[in-house]
Amino acid sequence: FKGGDTCEYLLSSGRFLGEKVWQPHSCMMHKYKNSEAKNCLLDRHVAFIGDSRIRQLFYSFIKLLNPQVKEEGNKHGNILFEDKSASIRVDFLWYPEVNGSMRQRIKSWTEDSVAKPHIIVAGAATWSIKIHNGSNEALAQYKINISSIAPLLEKLAKSSDVYWVLQDPVYEGLLSESRKMITNEKIDAYNEAAVRILNSSSRNSKAKVKVFSVSKLIAQETIMKSADGLHLPESSRDTNAMILMNVYCNKIMKPIDGSCCQPQPPLTLIQKLAFCFFTLSIIGYLIISLIHRNNYRKNKSCTDLESGEERKPAVSTPHVSTLEMLLHSFCKLGLIMTYFYLCDRANLFMKENKFYTHSSFFIPIVYILVLGVFYTENTKETKVLNREQTDEWKGWMQLVILIYHISGASTFLPVYMHIRVLVAAYLFQTGYGHFSYFWLKGDFGVYRVCQVLFRLNFLVVVLCIVMDRPYQFYYFVPLVTVWFMIIYATLSIWPQIVQKKANGNCLWHFGLLLKLLCLLTCICFLSYSQGLFEKIFSFWPLSKCFELNGNVYEWWFRWKLDRYVVFHGMLFAFIYLALQKRQMISEGKGDPLFSSRVSNILLFISVVSFLTYSVWASSCKNKTECNELHPSVSVVQILAFVLIRNIPGYIRSVYSSFFAWFGKISLELFICQYHIWLAADTKGILVLIPGYPMFNVLVSTFIFVCVAHEISQITNDLAQIVVPKDNSTLLKRLLCIAGFFSGLLLFSAVQDQSRH
């Protein structure tokens, strides 16, 4: 289903999501702030010409520029508005009928010596119906008059944006006696005449008068709330003004969440090179596959002519070479990246705005939680936060986050605060997992570091290239990458303290605690030194990784929001492993973690703490204030959950394989959702099947999960090739990777220069 001309859809079709949110067919509408509207209309002249309905649209339009404007002045006269700071001029010209006077005004703009308005919004009909008592002669005259105006409007459309607003229906039951002749039947006849006559002589698509017919659809849903049956309620007028702003401004401002009327972005140099690379990989893989197939046919089992028996060849099934595996992985990846590009960069598939309702969030949550319980299995080991349990934890959290994103639940503050805890829990696991590995294994080698960095960053680096997005855009990956390097640096610098060394002397435990205290001090210092933090990450080439929209504020905000939770994860891992080593906890199958009395007390405290946090998060009134407290208090609910999940022996001994399966691909799910499940960089929803929302979600979700699983396998395969265990080979690969990123920086600089 091709998206088609989204401008045409924006002006002519759509539906209401709820009572006040208008959803254009196939595209997303941006909600313009007054600062954005002023930037778009800088040095522009806008003219509204028509009757009282056009005057209403005029007022709603200028309120987007200045919300303080009041609807005052002569109702049956011209009204002028000017914003001198932005050199914006918006005029309303009172011409309630399509007649000679309106024609004369429009004709004056067609003269070469006169400055033409950049935007012209015109429309009238109800006065003609009213004055002439709905006579057929008036309709015939209207057709003659609009026929004389149409060529002038088409001439203006060559250099200006010209919109003809069709007449909205009326609510006949509320009309006063003097307006009873204005019927919906008459209005339909006038609209039909306008649509048939306008653009009838124009052959140039760029010189067309744009028919603004969407207001009719909006009015059909809202006109019953009108005060007089003729004029639209304020919310509907505001929607029409916002549509008008989107039609004109989206191609200028290019908002991420405003896909209507936006042209497809041109391919960058890096994108073209990526396309060539993937094309060559596909061709190379096909050639190698054909060669292997021919060799296989030659070595196929053949019949011994003497004995008549089937004889197997001596050669066994050929071993898959590294080159073939590499080309195979890039071949699959190339096809997947094509799908990514088509979904979120090409104007091929439709996109729609999100709309939050409690049912759209909570019903899927209950459904997946019930589904997860049906897949309960016994764990292979019964340790605290064992592998199956952490995969399960990641899985259900990721599914909740996905539902949160597609339902637009970020607008509901209690849900937002709980989702913030889930993101913090991921980082808690980062601190817990990497600390445990380094503490127990003592492996600080380059191979381990490169493996982790590759698995975390491979998909994001590819998407940065293919989708032309900065690294910081996928904020979670930079976050876990930087925290991994901080954990590595903290534990690897002299003196390297690991469990094997600490077992010989208890003083080493205090040494490690001192290291953790130094880390906490650095975190606190940076969190209160925004200037220093931004200076550190503004140095080139770090700035290329952490800048978003020209500054590193977004990176500062994301880092600061969960600044303590990784430290909490490391500290928890240290305490747990110390207790485990001294056999102060019982991790047998079915056994409670502590003695019955201690376990019950800790369980009670954990449940109370968990519920207390939820009550506090649900009572939040101000997002900024709650975000300030979040770094310090999020660990309460995380630790409460860990204890509730692990103290009872039975609960610790089982896990949900359903959630664990999703947990193994949680990183890929989190990143892939940006472009092939959601749309417009997470601001909207991808529509593969228009008109069937539930079926669309099912189909797009199935493809999305399959793609994420496939990318996870590709990443694992490539990690074995790109990051070998042999140190000398690994060094050569690292030099190649350094060369690749140097080239990427060079091409990026060329791109930036050409853009400027």
UniProtKB/TrEMBL annotation:
Domain called NXPE C-terminal: residue spans: 22-92
Statement: the UniProt record of this protein carries the keyword Glycoprotein: yes
Topology relative to the membrane: Multi-pass membrane protein
Subcellular location: Golgi apparatus membrane
Sequence ranges assigned to domain Cas1p 10 TM acyl transferase in this UniProt record: 253-734
CC per GO annotation: Golgi membrane
Pfam families documented for this protein: Cas1_AcylT (PF07779), NXPE4_C (PF24536)
Keywords attached to this entry: Acyltransferase, Glycoprotein, Golgi apparatus, Membrane, Transferase, Transmembrane, Transmembrane helix
Catalytic activity: CMP-N-acetyl-beta-neuraminate + acetyl-CoA = CMP-N-acetyl-7-O-acetyl-beta-neuraminate + CoA; a ganglioside GD3 (d18:1(4E)) + acetyl-CoA = a ganglioside Ac-O-7-GD3(d18:1(4E)) + CoA; CMP-N-acetyl-beta-neuraminate + acetyl-CoA = CMP-N-acetyl-9-O-acetyl-beta-neuraminate + CoA
Known EC number: 2.3.1.45
GO-annotated molecular function: N-acetylneuraminate 9-O-acetyltransferase activity
Organism domain of life: Eukaryota
One GO process term, biological-process aspect: carbohydrate metabolic process
Regions crossing the membrane: 269-291, 325-343, 355-375, 396-417, 452-468, 474-494, 506-528, 561-579, 600-617, 659-679, 685-709, 730-750
Family: Belongs to the PC-esterase family. CASD1 subfamily.
Protein name: N-acetylneuraminate (7)9-O-acetyltransferase
Organism: Semnornis frantzii
Gene name per UniProt: Casd1
